[in-house]
Design goal:
44% of the residues lie in helices and 28% in strands. With 87 residues, it is of the alpha+beta class. The protein has one domain (25-86). The radius of gyration is 17 Å and the shape is globular.
Amino acid sequence: MRRIALIAASLLGLVLSACEQNLEKANFNAYFYYPDNREEYLGLVQGLSACQTAARSRAETLNMSNAQWSYICCEKTSSSDCATKHK
């Protein structure tokens, strides 16, 4: 039984790793949210980490602490500008 659990955990790790790699190849529309919920479009970027960096850079430019802003990364596909949302 323990062997099955270890194999399952290993497989889950491989699946999650593959998903993370795919997110770094995907295109995202990056959106920044001000404390009053105003939305600012930051542009189209490749990779989830690039989207996160774009939002963080915008907050730093505005001298905002982490508690004062938010962001969303919308995966752009051929059929949708926001197929899935990520942070």
